[in-house]
Design goal:
2 copies of one chain form a homodimer.
Chain A lengths: L1 E5 L3 E7 L2 E8 L1 H9 L4 E9 L4 H9 L2 E9 L4 E7 L6 E7 L19 E4 L4 H9 L6 E5 L2 H6 L1 H8 L4 E5 H8 L4 H9 L5 E5 L5 E5 L2 E5 L13 H16 L4 H18 L6 H5 L2 H15 L9
Parallel strand pairs in A: 1-4, 1-8, 2-6, 4-5, 8-9, 9-10, 10-11
Antiparallel strand pairs in A: 2-3, 6-7, 11-12, 12-13
Helix pairs in contact in A: 1-8, 3-5, 6-7, 8-9, 9-11
């Protein structure tokens, strides 16, 4: 079993009310990989510069992440500098240096052709499509996107949506993509664009999972003490896709469980700056949170209130 | 069975992206009563001016709300004018005319001495305490408060907290009251102030219910198409307190169910301006939503993920 992820590997400099980190390991493909590796083997496609620290390479290797698809190009690694609002819900970009990521052209090694699942993290939709063209049709394909691509490359986004099983998208992006106000309407409109399933990421409000005529809503794991919300969406996707890959099933029941698992991985990730929490994470800790989450959300609907 | 509510009766003028309403029936005691009346009889303590429309009186009477405690004073009824942000999460007050509410001194009729439950809506904590002194100790007491009282009459708020079973409070107010950042820490700090239970209202994120060493988290009823969020907190409290009163029980299991019921009443209330949705609400509609909510939040935690 394996999941392939294509996305960014970055060095993030972040300031928020809980502290600062300088050039911490980050990027969508990294957060995804370190969340998904708890469930399945991970193959990574991304690009870094020759300045990328060997210790970060080693960290990913130590977690069993296949780096055959990680290209090292002459130049500097993608850097992002941002600061967060007091409640950690809003990030403001202070500086973006795309560096080698500016000309990223994913070329998959032959060993990557056959994978069970594929996650197209938030990159140019044309690159997402190029990656899809380079693999044998995987059993399950997820993708992410963002406001920038929805505004600038809408046609590309719409083309990719026809080819994926599940779209991961946040609330504002869902409204932007569909022009609808109510989340329920957004979800129906997105399903009509192609994906069989849409997972709307609601930040501190949790997640809502939709299929035609079906909805599942889960709150966040509230006891998590958020310290840095960077990578929450990608660790959600990593937990979700990792779980589905391991389950070798994508029935509605499995996807609901995967959505819960996604929120748990996100809740773990936000407890530290950068990837520290995911780096030290043990399966027993995930299992503990899985049991706690069940306990803190269950109630008896019977007897009926009237 | 009956629940007593003391709070405001108001005429609200509201503008938001979905429209405008001029002098619509509102106020904490009204929203609470029209939510709670689905479960139990309601006694209301509040004050209105001689300008208060008879049709509003009749509407409350038609729903079986006992108005013996509603004082009509010479002058005008409390009026609030506000506008909401695009997502309806933030209200900005444009004008407040306290009018007869400025000198509100709740005096309970003798028939109000014996009630099963009592809800002290968001009013001056000294008035909340005065009301508590006028009733035989009810089985179950809930109270609400707001940033203004926490800042201006902190001692009064703390005194009331020692006398109630459950505090209903929103996230920002919980942080203000306790000086803590993380919701979990806020809840523990509030429990240490007196209440056995605290319900933290999280707006579009749902509700979190806490007791010592216990937590229950519920998302919102997502399919609700929000049109006006005014009164969401009070209809939550009305559903919660009404449910507990009807159940004649306040075990943890019952309180969890009450919290779900509270979110459902809030979700119904926000589907219209003013009290229109609560006014026309039928028990069968609540029951339908109760079943739907269960369906949209349940998942199978077994088998274990590892």
């Amino acid at each position: 079993m394996s999941v392939l992820v294509v996305g960014s590997v970055a060095l993030d400099t972040i300031t928020n009310p809980f502290g600062t980190i300088e050039e911490g390991l980050g990027g969508s493909a990294v957060y995804f990989s370190l969340a998904a590796r708890a469930f399945t083997s991970v193959k990574l496609v991304a690009v870094v510069g020759t300045d990328f620290p060997e210790e970060h390479m080693q960290l990913l290797r130590d977690h069993g992440v296949d780096l055959d698809g990680l290209k090292v190009e002459t130049g500097n690694t993608f850097r992002w500098t941002g600061e967060y609002s007091a409640d950690l819900n809003m990030a403001r970009t202070l500086d973006t240096q795309l560096n080698v990521f500016a000309h990223f052209k994913p070329v998959l090694p032959p060993s990557y052709r056959h994978v069970d699942s594929l996650f197209l993290a938030n990159i140019d939709p044309h690159l997402q499509r190029d990656v899809l063209a380079q693999v044998d049709k995987p059993v399950f394909v997820g993708c992410d996107t963002m406001n920038f691509w929805i505004e600038q490359k809408r046609e590309g986004v719409l083309e990719v949506l026809k080819l994926v099983d599940v779209l991961f998208i946040n609330e504002d992006e869902a409204r932007m993509l569909t022009g609808m106000k109510h989340l329920f309407d957004c979800a129906q409109a997105i399903l009509a664009l192609g994906p069989n399933t849409v997972a709307i990421k609601r930040g501190a409000s949790g997640v809502a999972l939709f299929q035609q005529d079906r909805v599942f809503v889960a709150p966040v794991y509230l006891p998590a003490r958020a310290v840095d919300t960077t990578g929450a969406g990608d660790s959600f996707a990593g937990g979700f896709m990792g779980f589905v890959t391991k389950a070798q099933d994508h029935s509605w029941e499995t996807l609901k469980r995967a959505a819960v698992m996604g929120t748990l991985l996100a809740s773990l990730n936000i407890e530290s700056f950068s990837i520290h929490r995911l780096h030290t994470l043990k399966q027993t800790e995930i299992m503990e949170r899985w049991l706690e989450f069940q306990k803190m959300t269950e109630y008896k609907p019977e007897p009926a209130p009237f």
